[in-house]
């Protein structure tokens, strides 16, 4: 079975779109980075390294230090699919990230986004 093209897409090519989406709604790049680090366990230096090296999404999630234990609390619909029902685990992780970025752009409080 052929991989979905998002798996081989570089995180670097999508990251600016995440930043733009957040900033258009009055949120900051720092808040976005906080969300990404919360989800994946990367620190800011590791995240910058990923961006600089054009790491693809498959590697980005495969090498994530520690997915947040509260990841199962991320629920809802993204791109027409319920994130908690997506069977492909890599696609599910990508959609979790999309969901968090959407919540940030919609003005949700950081403590709610981070499932605190």
Report on the architecture of this protein.
With about 120 residues, the protein is mostly helical. It has a single domain, classed as Helicase, Ruva Protein, domain 3 (Orthogonal Bundle), CATH 1.10.8. The chain is about 55% helix and about 5% strand. It contains 7 helices and 2 strands; from the N terminus they run H-H-H-H-H-E-E-H-H. The chain has a two-stranded antiparallel ribbon with strand order 1-2. A hairpin with a 2-residue loop joins strand 1 and strand 2. Helix 2 runs parallel beside helix 6 and helix 3 packs antiparallel against helix 6.
Coarse structural class: mainly alpha
Mean pLDDT: 95
Gyration radius from CA atoms, angstroms: 13 Å
What CATH first level would be assigned?
A: Mainly Alpha
Q: CATH superfamily membership, which one?
A: uncharacterized protein sp1917 domain
CATH topology: Helicase, Ruva Protein, domain 3
Termini Cα gap:
38 Å
Q: Fraction of residues in helices?
A: 55-70%
Task: Flag low-confidence runs.
Answer: none
Count of distinct strands: 2
How many domains, in number, for the residues? 1
Shape: globular
Core attributes:
two-stranded antiparallel ribbon; Helicase, Ruva Protein, domain 3; UCP033199; mainly alpha; SP1917_dom_sf; 2 strands; 116 residues; single chain
């Amino acid at each position: 079975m052929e991989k979905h093209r998002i798996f081989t897409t570089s995180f670097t090519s999508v990251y600016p779109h995440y930043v733009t989406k957040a900033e258009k709604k009055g949120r900051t790049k720092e808040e976005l980075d906080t969300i990404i680090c919360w989800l994946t366990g990367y620190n800011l230096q590791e995240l910058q390294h990923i961006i600089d090296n054009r790491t693809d999404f498959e590697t980005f999630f495969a090498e994530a230090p520690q997915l947040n234990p509260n990841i199962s609390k991320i629920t809802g619909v993204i791109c027409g699919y319920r994130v908690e029902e997506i069977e492909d685990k890599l696609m599910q992780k990508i959609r979790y990230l999309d969901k968090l970025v959407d919540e940030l752009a919609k003005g949700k409080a950081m403590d709610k986004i981070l499932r605190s």
